[in-house]
Design a protein that fits this description.
CATH topology of the largest domain: Alpha-Beta Plaits
Domain RRM: 63-140
Strand content: 15-25%
InterPro entries: Nucleotide-bd_a/b_plait_sf (IPR012677), RBD_domain_sf (IPR035979), RNA_proc/Spliceosome_comp (IPR051847), RRM_dom (IPR000504)
GO molecular function: RNA binding
Helix content: 40-55%
Shape: rod-shaped
Largest sheet: 4 strands, antiparallel
Number of domains: 2
Radius of gyration: 27 Å
Distance between the termini: 40 Å
Pfam families: RRM_1
Keywords: Membrane, RNA-binding, Transmembrane, Transmembrane helix
């Protein structure tokens, strides 16, 4: 995406340069030099801006929470409403039995990493629909730590 933006800026710069330089009589060497310097400056400005982390990127870090001992009658909307009291909820997945299609009593909630500790602290051992919830940070099955501990 950033490369496309850089190419776009270079194209715009080239078109504007052609429009201006076609009106002025300059030796071709100076026109080439001005174009090269301008394109290089634009390239470095765009790559430097692209490397700076934006506010969106810094807030995009998420934590997945495991939620166990859920009531079987609870649905995604119920769980999302419960966890939304403690921050944004990006996704809720409640696990179902493949054969019967019935809920299995556990699931996962994806939240911003900054909101997850508060939700975990407040909802672990919380009584919800006559069940005591078990909330933990979910294991990442692809992480080396979980593979080594097995």
């Amino acid at each position: 995406m950033n490369l496309n933006k850089t190419v776009l800026w270079v194209a715009v710069y080239s078109i504007v340069g052609v429009a201006i330089l076609s009106q002025i009589t300059l030796p071709s060497f100076f026109a080439f030099l001005a174009g090269t310097i301008g394109a290089t400056v634009l390239f470095f400005l765009n790559t430097r801006v692209a490397k700076a982390p934006s506010a969106e990127q810094s807030q995009s870090k998420t934590t997945t929470l495991y939620v166990g001992n859920l009531p079987y009658k609870a649905n995604e909307s119920n769980v999302k409403t419960l966890f939304a009291q403690y921050g944004d909820v990006f996704a809720v997945r409640l696990m179902k039995d493949k054969r019967t299609g019935k809920r299995r009593g556990f699931g996962f909630v994806v939240m911003p990493a900054s909101d997850a500790p508060r939700a975990l602290e407040n909802l672990n051992e919380h009584n919800y629909m006559d069940r005591t919830l078990k909330v933990r940070v979910a294991n990442d099955p692809k992480s080396p730590e979980s593979i080594e501990s097995d």
